[in-house]
Amino acid sequence: MNIHGKASKENTYDAIVVGSGISGGWAAKELTQQGLKVLLLERGRPVEHVTDYPTAQTPAWELKHRGRVTPFDRENYPLQGRNYNVNEANRHFYVNEKEHPYVQTRNDVFTWVRGYQVGGRSLTWGRHCYRWSDLDFEANAKEGIAVDWPIRYRDIAPWYSYVEKFTGISGSRENLPHLPDSEFLPPMELNCLEAHFKSQVTGHFGDRQVIPGRVANLTTPIEGRGVCQYRNLCDRGCPYGGYFSSNAATLPAAAQTGNLTLKPHSVVLRVLHDEAKGKASGVEVLDTQTMQTVTYHARVIFLNASTIATTMIMLQSVSGRFPAGLGNDSGELGHNLMTHPKTGAGGAFPGLTDKYYYGRKANGLYIPRFRNVGSKHPGYLRGFNYQGGATRNRKNPADFPGPGLGAEFKEFVGQPGAWSLSLSGFGEQLPYHDNQVRVSQTVRDVHGLPVAEIDFEWKDNELKMAEDMVASAREMLEAAGCTDIKEHYGVKALRTTAHEMGTARMGRDPRTSVLNPHNQVWGCPNVYVTDGACMTSNSCVNPSLTYMALTARACDHAVGQMKQRVI
Questions:
Q1: Measured between alpha carbons, how far is 555 from 519 in angstroms, rounded to an integer?
Q2: How far is CA 376 from the centre of its chain?
Q3: Within 58-152, where are the H helices?
Q4: What pLDDT score does 295 carry?
Q5: What are the pLDDT digits (tens) for 318-337?
Q6: Is the Cβ–Cβ distance between 498 and 113 less than 8 Å?
């Protein structure tokens, strides 16, 4: 791909895509394959597939700190480190929080995980991929919450199929109406303790299923990408292409067209608006290597910088037509910030001491939502799922009866120890107007640019749900015979996930939403937003597959509009 090539005449392209993560990579692929000359702008550094994964093949004993979290990591990645094991093996794919801070005004519960590089968080994501259903798309309307989604499952189902065939999703067909099946590759099978857990949960709880996780890890090759090697080192980058990332999949496909120009180190400051034409004319960009600003122009612009970053661009895209930010006629831009509350429990399992498993599969078990599916739960709205898994640990060196040295000690610690089983619940948060993102008026990042100010809190519905998430995890672990069960963290320390969304929501009415049913900005039809900012609610399932499908759908719409000279 043309990383540093000269721009076309007067820095003008057919399309500009902002952000090279999961949704931005898809936008670049779809638009270039339709014949458009595309400029892909990435604020971070370049990362080439395979060659820029420096620790992908490094065993723990060759790392200076053996892959453990260091004081440096705790000092420079304190918030991201609450949710992820940020350490010397992967820290190069996470943003340094001293250089790129953000402000939290109400508390510090919100964790904003960022990766400023080509590929973004597609290099470190958890890879779980699930379709939404009309249980999700209809919930707001049925419950009178916020605004209705302007689409239903039938509108996006063919696009799910389209992106799944390219992405590669391993999973099992279950025929669950509220968790539709995908175009699956063979699943990563449950290990022996996970299978035991499945049988016990099925026997004790008639409303619950335990299935293999549905993940973007290949079990058969696709498009020149190799299968998962069962190393479970995905967050270091996969040189085999065994999991989906922009770097391994969509960006190479876009580059093959000859229509892609990729510019890293390019922070988009704002979208420029042509008052006479009533459309966006381009973007203003800061080159963080030269610290010079440059303007690029295009007929269509896709904002895929990630939820909060996209919203920050829109809030700062002030013009005569949009004095409060691009598309902000409704006053909803920046509001309705959502993520998934996360908690659960884990325990030890005393049996199966004669069993083990092959490799280290990058997946585990999944328990689909069972609350407020059919019958109504009296305590709260919506529901949650669990992602979890079973592992067999090494023996604890402290249990060795003699001194911690010598051949007998080495033999002891090299033997497998006890099994453990963990369940992490992911809940659906309701959209609240007062959970919002603003542009800080006082704090700047390393480049002197305003940072995000996040005003966020959990409310009663999420707190009641979290209590049930812990209690339900405990009762299932007990039913399976687990002991020494401990909750992950208390409700008072309820965690957020890396699934932030909702601050430029889709809707049916420009008076109450930012985007129309095709992901176009109301009042500025040649700007599309298809990352997490567009979401009207947040379900309880991982959102990335839905971002991909919405992006492919919006690209198809944009190309059609361009052919008709509407935009």
A1: 10
A2: 29
A3: 71-76, 80-83, 134-137, 139-143
A4: 98
A5: 999 999 999 999 999 999 99
A6: yes
Residues 6+ away with beta carbon under 8 Å from 503: 307, 308, 310, 311, 333, 334, 335, 336, 337, 436, 437, 533
Residue 384: closest CA among 164, 111, 82, 135 = 135
Separation CA 40–CA 388 (nearest Å): 36
pLDDT of residue 241: 98
pLDDT of residue 5: 41
User: How many CB atoms sit inside 10 A of residue 189's CB?
Assistant: 14
Position 1 scores a pLDDT of 44
β-bridge partners, 426? 342, 385
Three-point CA angle 384, 390, 391, nearest 5°? 145
Residue 8 has a pLDDT of 55
Rounded to 5 degrees, φ, ψ at 193 are -75, -35
Whether 39 and 261 have beta carbons less than 8 Å apart is answered as yes
What gap in Å lies between CA 550 and CA 27, rounded to an integer? 10
Question: How is residue 439 annotated by DSSP?
Answer: E
Tokens of 259: 């229509």
* Among 532, 212, 229, 472, CA closest to 359: 229
Tokens 């939290």, located at residue? 104
Token pair recorded at residue 92: 């190069």
Tell me the two tokens of residue 283: 């973007």
The rounded distance, in Å, linking the Cα atoms of 158 and 549 is 9
DSSP string, 382-426: S-EEEEEEEEEEEPPGGG-SS-S-SHHHHHHHTSEEEEEEEEEEE
In three-state secondary structure terms, 252 is helix
Do residues 566 and 176 lie in contact, with contact meaning Cβ atoms separated by under 8 Å? no
pTM over the 0.70 mark:
yes
Give the Cα separation of 475 and 380 in Å (integer).
19
Confirm if 469 and 190 have CB atoms less than 8 A apart.
no
Helical packing angle, 460-479 and 192-204, nearest 10°: 110
* Cβ atoms within 10 Å of 446's Cβ, excluding its own: 11
Distance between CA atoms of residues 71 and 92, nearest Å: 16
Give, as one character, the DSSP assignment of residue 268.
E
* pLDDT < 70 regions, the chain: 1-9
Bridge partner list, 169: 184
In whole angstroms, give the CA distance from residue 236 to residue 89.
Answer: 7
- State the pLDDT at residue 3: 40
What is the per-residue pLDDT for 176? 98
Q: What is the pLDDT of residue 401?
A: 87
Quick one: pLDDT at residue 389? 98
> Helix (H) and strand (E) counts for the chain?
12, 19
